[in-house]
Amino acid sequence: MPPMGYELMYTAFGGPGRWYGPVYFPLDASSEAGRPRFRIHGLLGGTGYQLRLAARSIVGSGTAYEFSVRTLDSTRPGPVRIKEHFYGIYPYSQVVQWETPLNGGLPIIGYRIRIRPVHLLSSETFNPAQAGADPIVVGAGPWHQFAPQYNNPYINYYYLTNLDPDQVYQVVVEAENERGFSLDGIDLNQYGYLNRTPSDSPRPIHYSDVHTSTTKVISVSDLVPIWSVFKTPSADLLGRPPRIFGSAPRIQEASFLALGFTMYAVLFSAVI
């Protein structure tokens, strides 16, 4: 019978002897050019593993091919890819979403989010891929840092509030493990890309180098922007909603209450 796919089982040397799997892969999961590779997530850094790979058909699995590998030593997590939304939909807040990065061989223990207001040299560089150039920061305010409560390993968003309307913001998201944060030592004033594969000494790559010989050994899909920008829309004249931000004048709250009471009285008298 023709094979339908592959199944892979693995165990760690020196571990309890338990085999994990089988992990199933499609038939085209090979090392040929243009094909997806066999990729197993969640392994530990600096650890030896024994693996069994077998083809599977409709009637069962064939004889397994056994081999062993050793993972690289653990590093800090890889860069975090932000799901970019270049223009916000609300003047005073923004939801920042990201993809879970590679953990560097150690469990992720938290995230750090930094944001600051900036001015760009050209507004066309909101989307570098479309503009064909890196965004250049020509003026910036102070950084504000947030650390969301890490009670869910699949957390992938954070709700930023108390933003200013019609303002460009630079946002950075980093993952943390026992070795440090994703972007430790990286200059956040310069835009660039990092290989998604974790490293203790990552080297930023600029947009002009993405399609040149300097990145021939790196797939463009494996490059992650160091930071992202977005712009909040303009606001109306009513100011910040007092129930959300609590920054509106007290007299505004009183006027809204008086208006509500008047409307209620009119409706009640109409019913009578």
UniProtKB/TrEMBL annotation:
Domain of life: Eukaryota
Residue ranges occupied by any Fibronectin type-III domain in the UniProt entry: 1-75, 76-200
SMART domains named among the record's database cross-references: FN3
Pfam family, one: fn3
CDD domains, per the entry: FN3
Classification via InterPro entries: FN3_dom (IPR003961), FN3_sf (IPR036116), Ig-like_fold (IPR013783)
Protein known as: Fibronectin type-III domain-containing protein
Organism whose genome encodes this protein: Paragonimus heterotremus
